[in-house]
User: Fold TonB family protein from Poritiphilus flavus.
Amino acid sequence: MIQNIIASLLFQSAFLMLYDIFLRRETFFKWNRFYLIGSYILSMVLPLVKIEIFNAVVPKRVLSYSAYLFDMDPFSDIQLSGNQAANGELPIWDLILFSGMVVAAFWFGYKLYRLRKLRSAGQVHHFRGFTKILIPDTNQAFSFFRSVYIGDQIPQNKHRSIIQHELVHIREKHSLDLLFFELMRIPAWFNPFVYIYQKRISELHEYIADDSVVKTNKKEHYLQLLSEVFDVENISLINQFSKSSLIKKRIDMLQKTKSKSIRQLKYLLLLPLISSMLLYSSCESSEKTDLDPEISVQDVQNLNQEEEKEVFKTLKSLSTASNEWSLTITDKENTMKFLPASGDAFITGPNNERIKARKVFGPSIEFSSANISPDVVPFGLVYEVPVFPGCENAQDKRTCFLEMIMEHINQNFNYPKEAEEQQIEGRVNVIFTIDQNGMITDIQKRGPHALLEAEAVRIISLLPEMSPGKDKGKNVSVPFSFPLTFKLDKT
Assistant:
């Protein structure tokens, strides 16, 4: 989310720079109006567009579980439980963001209240196509949607020109543009560019109205009218007839020679600019943000005590700070990644603390997805799990299976003497398959030492024949994995 916001701000600054340098002084007013509205919308959409052809990131050595295996590991750190109570604390940046949005929303409501108050205080006259509201004790003039507000202190002979001007705003529906940016200022109250966009579109509205009026009105009379500064109601969502900061620009633009059609080719500058933005948003950034940290360790499969504490401390901080984050653990060759958990999933940390996270890439055992057939279903997804001997009459055969596996490991586990003598410790990750006949096949392992790997394979090889798993009414092969930790008692 934060990366998308940053990208959106960068794109808006680029669009505004192109407008100010190449387009703002041209008399293609309606094209420029389309440009300002369209470029702002594009700036919000482009960060979400990811074109695969641009996303050519060469990965580190990829050693990970295949995608279809992600949900098969009941002994990994990912577990399921009942609903977990939220801590009720809102991260500080979220608190600041939402507080600003609330203030911006109230300010928007206050502007609407001021308009309503002006309307109720004035004399309302209905005409075909618009409503004229005569405001007492002021010389203001502006429009909002189909209503034209004119102060009673403005001479009557000037009303016609002012109304002509404001009717252009009404016909062109300029209030919709201002309202659009006004609403954008609520969620993006912190964004300086949305205020610049609104200022540019308001300026452009006046150019469009002026250009239309001078075609039917005497130019000299209209220029004189513009030069008179009226009071201005400071409401950013209205079209103001006279604003001192705009008077000189409007007069200069009225006296400017019409831009030649060939200059419309300037809009083609959008093509390389948008292409660059697509390239930027599609390419995976190599820079790490506060919500995308990377921790380097000696061995991702066998974290030492200090590394494990650092990982879980970081996970806890990330999981409470945002809904979008990632944590990458790397060694010289391999990568392990954590992402936010969905539903009731969580990771159990030190002291059985639950953290809302899930492991996407684990310490890996290569298992080619090219060899996978429709007859292979992960343990976490299979409709009927394999039945371990002794679980035939169990009400929950899945839980019984896990309990019997644990009992089997405890009964058959022996620490290799040679590994004990050499003080070898660590975790061995094992994958095996219970095939369509209930036999144990395709044992794969990955650990810190061959002695520990051999012991893990020996334990799995002693598993009994089982009743095969079933899915969609037929026998299927069921891959199953678990981590086996070898730890010496040094007391």
About this structure: Residues 56-89, 284-288, 361-372 have pLDDT under 50 and may be disordered. The first strand starts at residue 78 and ends at 80.
